[in-house]
Amino acid sequence: MNVGVAHSEVNPNTRVMNSRGMWLTYALGVGMLHIVLLSIPFFSVPVAWTLTNVIHNLGMYVFLHAVKGTPFETPDQGKARLLTHWEQLDYGVQFTSSRKFFTISPIILYFLASFYTKYDTTHFILNTTSLLTVLIPKLPQLHGVRIFGINKY
Amino acid sequence: MANPSAVCNGHLHHHHQKQNNLLKSGICKKNGITKGIKKNGISNGTLYKKKFVEHFEQAPMYVAVFTFLGFGVGTIFGYLRDFMRAWGLEKRNVATEREQQKDFVPLYQDFENFYTRNLYMRIRDNWNRPICSVPGPQFDLMERVTDDYNWTFRFTGRIIKNVINMGSYNYLGFAETDVNALKTVTIELQKYGTGICSTRQEMGTLDKHVELEKLVATFLGVEDAMVFGMGFATNSMNIPALVGKGCLILSDELNHTSLVLGARLSGATIRIFKHNNIQSLEKLLRDAIIYGQPRSRRAWRKIIILVEGIYSMEGSIVRLPEIVSLKKKYKAYLYLDEAHSIGAVGATGRGVVEYFGMSPDDVDVLMGTFTKSFGAAGGYIAGKKDLVDFLRTHSHSAVYATSMCPPVAEQIIRAMKCVMGLDGTTQGLQRVRQLGKNTRYFRRRLHEMGFIIYGNDDSPVVPLLLYMPGKIGAFARRMLEKNIGVVVVGFPATPITESRARFCVSAAHTREMLDTVLNALDELGDFLHLKYSRYSKSSHPELYEETRLELED
Q: Is A29 domain-assigned?
């Protein structure tokens, strides 16, 4: 099983987020998560929204900013082994449409969560810290930066 | 007044005469704009003599969503199983580091194996199936079972007989064991033995090679040709001899690994243009000539365009007339890899050059392999005598690799003579015609059934799109149960949403075999819901006619 025998794309991970239907699947996934949380009777609406926001940001952080490398061997001698998926997107080119979409979607979720929690202080602190953990790694200035050497190798 | 080249009422008036003199012989003047389902770009109708119809239909959006969901579920379960394996809740079947080396820096990254471990292993029984007969239109398979979910296999000893072969590149049916057909091969085998034990430049050039090279040159209509022992190595060893640093390679997106490897080994700059997209290629050519090499702005030493005749994963045919006109305009070189198209397309089986009615002088380097249509092994490069003489001295393969072995060379000679008609029969021409008939029938029936098929209507490579990862395994296994062997491909070999099953039609397939396969596909398509096409022609035209009459009422 070889990467890219039917196309000469060296690292398919760079183009996965641009594939047709990926954004829609992602939006539907978030919607599904929210509906599941809303259907649990113990959670009030503000709690469900904050939980959606936090769980979504946690998942996004883990899959886009924590896991490094590719789940398959690439023919480029491991150039992307130490890069997170976010850093691999479009081979490091900044401000492409996928990057913009995935930067804006947690912000939209944040707006919605703030509205539905009626700007309550505890919820605000939770939502904001969670948003910051997922927005700061996306800044172009932090491309390839590992603070305190966490997650370096 | 009006522009003299204007078209009024569909009749070309003054321009008509000029067109006749300008265009080369044989180009039909009646052919205006082709009206196929064309997806890319403007139609250059006057360059193509017959309709150039290619389909790359996109499935409805819900299919893409479900494909991603399928991969997502697979990934989640993959993480779960990895977790269980790490904590000892599940047996580890993968290779693990030795106890004494636990504190060393690990040799491999676990994550790079994630896909193989968790997704590929589940459906691994559909690849690497050992066969035990000649890969003709039918073959025998060794039955394989697994006791631990595809981690290990064992052979039961039973042989599954007469499985219909829809995966081998046996386009003209020369993979045969008929004693009469192989008579000359047996004689040569007894005369020369099997081994050459030398390279071309030392003592490995036999009279058989000289005979074969002359025959290949006559077959293709060029001045000279050179043959090599391995098809893949023909590309990867000769492109570095032709281009080097300071040259520019413009390579198609979907080129084969051998071309990509050869291009990388050469050290030239590689730029990729979108698949079969002439506008993209022209833009790259213009940028290359206007801006020259990066930073130094010097002119490129050479610009070479690498394309294939038929792309084996898409089934599309290269737009040769347009590329040749581009290459003449911008003075670039053209390298055409006819691995899948030599013998398979063209009225007499001479490849895409004949298919488009062009002269072989238009292409600078004609490359092809003997593995697909001629039932042998090896490859050739053909073209002008200067080019081939240069390769005889400078090719890496000629200096270091052993040459083609004599029985294989004789097989190619007899197959090529058969196709050319030099053996006194019309069998070769019949094979080529039969392949064309089979291809058109197979593709037409699949379109009518409602499957999404990629590629040109005349290409014997037929990719059938499966999309979802679960269907890859299900499709291949069920086809084997029905005694049909198919090749399936999924991510990461293909783009993530485009997993496919690839059929290779052969001239040796009879109508009954194709009908068996088509009926099985029909059943399986309904069972697995594979009929995504929204543009299929109805197979019951009488019903369609009825509704049309009603609307006109």
A: no
User: How far lies B185's CA from each of A75, B77, B215, B355, B424, in Å?
Assistant: 40, 54, 16, 30, 18
Q: What is the mean pLDDT of residues B52-69?
A: 91
Kindly state whether residue B117 falls inside one of the protein's structural domains. yes
B89-135 tens-digit pLDDT: 888 887 777 888 888 888 777 888 899 889 999 999 999 999 999 99
ipTM of the complex: 0.93
The answer to whether position A68 is within a domain reads yes
Per-residue pLDDT for B268 more than 60? yes
Res B278 pLDDT > 60: yes
Among A20, A84, A91, the residue to mutate for chain B (most B Cβ within 10 A) = A20
Cβ distance of B64 and A19 shorter than 8 Å: yes
Which residue is closest to A16 within chain B, CA to CA? B496
A48 domain residue, yes or no? yes
pTM of the model: 0.86
Number of domains in chain A: 1
**Whole-number pLDDT of residue B509:** 94
Instruction: Quickly list DSSP for B405-430.
Output: -HHHHHHHHHHHHHHHTTTSSSHHHH
**Cα distance between residue B127 and residue B120, in whole Å:** 10
Q: What is the CATH number of the domain that holds B109?
A: 3.90.1150.10
Among B72, B111, B255, the residue with its CB nearest the CB of A71 is: B111
Burial of B544 (0-12, 13-18, 19+ CB in 10 A): exposed
Give the span between the Cα atoms of B80 and B73, in whole angstroms.
Answer: 11
Q: Which residues of B touch A25 (CB under 8 A)?
A: 64-65, 68-69, 72
Q: Are residues B374 and B251 in the same domain?
A: yes
Q: Are residues B336 and B433 in the same domain?
A: no
Number of domains in chain B: 2
The Cα–Cα gap between A17 and A27 comes to 13
Between B68, B72, B114, which is nearest A71 by CB?
A: B114
Quick check: is B27 in a domain? no
Do B233 and B356 lie in a common domain?
yes
- In this complex, do A19 and B493 lie within 8 Å of one another by their Cβ atoms? no
Cα–Cα distance for residue pair B101/B239, rounded to 1 Å: 43
Q: Does B115 contact chain A (CB < 8 Å)?
A: yes
Q: With an 8 Å Cβ cutoff, is B68 touching chain A?
A: yes
Residue ranges making up the domain that contains B69: 58-164+425-537
- Say if the Cβ atoms of A25 and B69 lie within 8 Å: yes
Q: How far is B259 from chain A (nearest CA, A)?
A: 10
The answer to which of A61-75, A136-150, B6-20, B117-131 has the lowest mean pLDDT is B6-20
* Domain membership of residue A120 as a residue range: 43-143
Least-confidence region, from B170-174, B447-451, B492-496: B492-496
Q: With respect to residue B456, please indicate whether it lies within any of the assigned structural domains.
A: yes
CB–CB of A12 and B496 under 8 A? yes
Q: What token pair was written down for B433?
A: 């015609």
